Amino acid sequence: MADRVKKRKRTSTARRHDQVRFLERFGSIMPSCSFCYENKSECVASDRYDRCLPCVKAGRPHCDVHGVDLRPFIKEKERLDAERQATLKELFANQSKLARLEQQSRALEAKALAAFRRESRLLEEEEAAERAAASSGAPGAGASSAPPTTLSPFDPSLLDSAGGSFG
Ligand SMILES: [Zn+2]
Ligand SMILES: [Zn+2]
């Protein structure tokens, strides 16, 4: 009798075999678990056991023959929806910002182009005047003594006089 108390740890194969035998004896045909449904196999299960026979035989750790906990799906769906909403909001905000920046960029280009054209016109006029002065042969009116007429540093006031306005 003493040696019956000292139980050896049974192998998983033996335990699975016991589960199979248990379900073969105690189980009855029930609405299929998803595994049996997919495999079109007879779902034999017991109210007292959480896995059906085919799932035990297949070594599947989980069987949903006694129902599925739907709460994780609900929770995850809510999390995804919330994140999606937040991302959409961010996206719309960024789209508006991008549109604003592009509009400002176009306005700046138009003003800059107008300023450049105006400067080109002034430069051409000054160069024409210099050429006229040089060809008239007046002493001391040569190019070497002419004041520099190169492009002046960028003058922001040109932007204001070039028409249009910033958003
Ligand atoms: Zn099953
Ligand atoms: Zn199952």
Characterise the protein shown here.
Keywords: Coiled coil. This protein has about 170 residues and is mainly alpha-helical. The chain is about 60% helix and about 0% strand. It has helices at about 1-5, 10-25, 35-40, 55-60, 70-135, 155-160, and strands at about 30, 45. The longest helix has about 60 residues, at about 70-135. Residues about 160-165 have low confidence and may be disordered. Bound molecules: zinc ion (2 copies).
Keywords:
single chain, 167 residues, mainly alpha, 6 helices, disordered C terminus, binds zinc ion
The best one-word shape is: rod-shaped
Number of helices: 6
Q: Strand-and-helix sequence, N→C?
A: HHEHEHHH
Give the distance, in angstroms, between the N- and C-terminal Cα atoms.
Answer: 96 Å
Oligomer: single chain
Q: How many strand segments?
A: 2
Low-confidence stretches: 162-167
Biggest sheet record = 2 strands, antiparallel
The ligands found in this model are: zinc ion
What fraction of residues sit in β-strands?
Answer: under 5%
Helix/strand-derived category reads mainly alpha
| Mean residue pLDDT | 82
Instruction: Report the C-alpha radius of gyration, rounded.
Output: 44 Å
Q: What's the helical proportion of residues?
A: 55-70%
Cross-sheet strand order for the largest sheet: 1-2
